[in-house]
What does this fold into?
Amino acid sequence: SGQKVCYGSLKHSCYKLAYFQDLSRRVGFEEARQACEMDGGALLSLESQAEQQLIENMLQNLTKSGSGISDGDFWIGLWRSGNELATSSPCPNLYKWADGSISPFRNWYTDEPSCGSEACVVMYHQPTANPGLGGPYLYQWNDDRCNMKH
It folds into this structure.
């Protein structure tokens, strides 16, 4: 389930946000990726500041609609495979879009990505959390463990 919004002119013409208040319905990165593909889409690749802003606006509208959205991050389609840890390339350069996009756009939170065992990326959505060094935990990106439920 989720809210689907379509636009006529954009490269990604339709977006679907899936948010589960019920923690038991939240899923890991791979489950989220498969759910998108079964739905004929892909986990989102955000390719510009304009697209990032569009998604932020969609989340704000969803929140305003009274659907009870509280803290809960959203998977996006950025990840790195663990077998690339041994390369000489700096860790942030190892992240790639699951749908094959080559967009260099990134919106990391301060001090992210932390790398290590965290290889899959979420868009922060924690309106009730106290702000950190990079400000509120809203809409910036964070690498997380791929088996976390979002």
Summary: The CA atoms of residues 63 and 69 lie 5 Å apart. Strands lie at 3-6, 14-17, 74-79, 96-97, 120-125, 138-144.
